[in-house]
Amino acid sequence: MPGLTLRQKIPLLIVSPILAAVALITGFGYIYGQRAVDQLAQETTRKSTNAISSHLQSYLDRPHQVLAINQAAIVSGQLDPTDNEALRKFAFEIVSRGPRDYFYSTPSGRFLGIEPYQEGELMYWLRDETTAPNAEIYRLDEQGNPTEIEEITLFDPRQRDWYKAAVAAGEPTWSNIYLYANRAVLGMGAVFPYYENEELQGVFLVDITLSDISDFLQELSISPNGEAFIIEPDGKLVGNSLEVANFLEQGDSAVRLNGQESNNPFIRELTQVILDEYAPQGQKLEALQQFNYTVENTSQYVGLMPFTDNRGLEWYVVVIIPKTDFQYVINASTRSALLVGIMVALLSIILGLLVARSIVKPIEALNYAAQSVEDNQFEPDVLNPVSQRKDELGQLATVFQRMGAVIMSSQASLKEQMSTLEIEVAKAKQNSRHAGDYNEFHIHELLKRSRQVRRKMGHEQNLSHLLRQVVYFSEFQDKDIEKLIALGKKEEVPENTYLCREDEPGDAFYIILEGAVEIYVEKINKFLTQLSSGSFFGELSLLLGIPRTATVRTKEETVLFTLDQKSLQKLLKQYPNMAENIAQQLTQHQEELASRKETFKKMGIMDDEDAFNNNPLQWIRGRLKTLFALS
User: Which of 190, 238, 543, 627 is most solvent-facing, going by the fewest CB within 10 Å?
Assistant: First the structure.
């Protein structure tokens, strides 16, 4: 946040974490809420499939329990299957206890039984040698006695699926699902083949209707919009809660529907997925499977469980729960978390802004006081409200008041000294004009005192700023400049002091912080130039390791920043890119380099004259690597 003021930064630093925390809490709340809902949905599908399986087990056990009672009655002699009257009474007692069918058929075609009919009425079927090939259907009174013939229909029980299944199995089993003989209802029979002396005497049948299973699924409370259906391993429908037909009537027969052919998208698509991915042909589903599937752009939680019994029955129970049934829980939780978060955030922001104001306001007062000191207009009373605080800012304001008072007093004293010096200089100049005599020593002394006063008043140029004026250091960051200053040294040099002489080794680089130097060729006593504050010299000799080409002497008391060869070597190793920058800059001194060509040859550093002439940058790079042991 480099472009922001302290007034902006502090509130932003206080408010941003609060808003971020609210956003994170709300986001994580939604994520963990979604996970909790997924777990709840899986638990719901598991419980629902278990409930359906338990109901099926109980419902499908009843017919076989009736057959077990039937067998026990025959074995004990309580029931004689050859006695129509006794068998009718036994069937009436069984059917009266629950809405199920009870029938018996012999290999000769003899058939009798009782089934529930409309409005709770019971119908009695009879087919024997006197009625064959027809069966007569009678109404029964409340005592189970036939009253009148309701219908006569052509019927041969030996051609029915349940009879064939019993004969084929030779033991209690289930028949295939079939259409009832006298009504459009799908049913399934629990059958028991009755043998004497290993010879089949007849087949007992207790029917169940698949509509009972569909009714149970429709009444089952799964979720607000949850549904369920049951299919066989080949995909044929057994029952469903979606009020979809399980078969199509074709004359006196029925064609059972496969779930893949259903006009209901839930049954159709999920049956396809189950048969393709979870229970393909030839493979059995072993345990509960739970997965998500999207039907008509709505994500569904799906539970798939195999149902089997010990009599060869194998079905798949499917439970479907729309994700939207649980989404309201997440949405409500997220809204609550967001509302609470917003309230907490607003309260925290208000408190944070108040705290920020209490911090920023005294800091602004201190900043104003600092500017006042800089403008020589500081008034200590300005900080009285801040200095009365009992915290660190109050202590800082108190110290600042004392410091400001000292600075203002010092500034006043320095100004007075400067005024006195200016008066003395003016008098000296006036006296020299009147006397015709120029007192140079006295003037120099006054100038020296003036520089000292200016230095105390802070007029000395900033070293960091001066270093950045040197092209080699212009790209340095603040921390790099600090390291550079730490490597060099600052020294005060008296007037008329030789800093370096021509033909001496170039072992240092100088920046003039204050004062002035003159540069001349001593051999021929030729003045070259004069440098003052902010100038630098000696870099070419230092960087290339060549002798000085001129003599440098201070013209007055001078303050220098010096960087020697050892310090520069450390710097170049810390900043490898700086060597390339220096090499690029040195190529700007081509005339001076060319004038030194013969000197380079005598020194033995002109190892590749062609490179020096054609590509001086390459030569300079090699020289820097050699001189400063760079890699």
Answer: 627
Q: How far is CA 190 from CA 63, 87, 117, 162, 182, in A?
A: 6, 18, 19, 8, 19
Residues 345 and 539: their CA atoms lie apart, in Å, by: 60
- What pLDDT sits at residue 407? 73
Cα–Cα distance for residue pair 597/116, rounded to 1 Å:
126
Is residue 579 within 8 A of residue 624, CB to CB? The reply is yes
Structure tokens at 627: 């001189």
Buried b (16+ CB within 10 A) or exposed e, 351-365: ebeeebeebbebbeb
Res 460: pLDDT:
42
Q: What's the N-to-C CA distance of the chain in angstroms?
A: 38
Task: State which H helix or E strand residue 197 sits in.
Answer: none
Task: Check if the beta carbon of residue 205 is closer than 8 Å to that of residue 193.
Answer: no
**What are the residue ranges in the chain where pLDDT is below 70?**
1-9, 29-30, 32-33, 99, 182, 251-252, 328-334, 337, 374, 411, 414, 425, 428-462
Instruction: Give every strand in the sheet of 551-554, ordered side by side.
Output: 498-500, 551-554, 516-521, 526-532
| Segment 287-295 long-range contacts (CB within 8 Å, at least 24 positions apart) | 288/46, 288/49, 290/42, 290/45, 290/46, 292/323, 293/269, 295/265, 295/266, 295/269, 295/270, 295/320
Q: What's the DSSP call for residue 472?
A: G
Provide DSSP, 362-423.
Answer: HHHHHHHHHHHHHTT---GGGGHHHHT-SSHHHHHHHHHHHHHHHHHHHHHHHHHHHHHHHH
What is the Cα–Cα distance from 521 to 503, expressed in whole angstroms?
A: 10
**Alpha carbon separation from 371 to 7, 265, 319, 364, 375 (Å, rounded):** 17, 78, 77, 11, 6
Q: Which helix (DSSP H) or strand (DSSP E) does residue 424 occupy?
A: helix 392-435
**CB-CB contact of 144 with 89 (8 Å):** yes
Q: How far apart are CA 366 and CA 362, in angstroms?
A: 6
Residue 289's pLDDT is: 92
Q: Tokens for 469? A: 């004026």
Return d(Cα 544, Cα 576) in angstroms, integer. Answer: 17
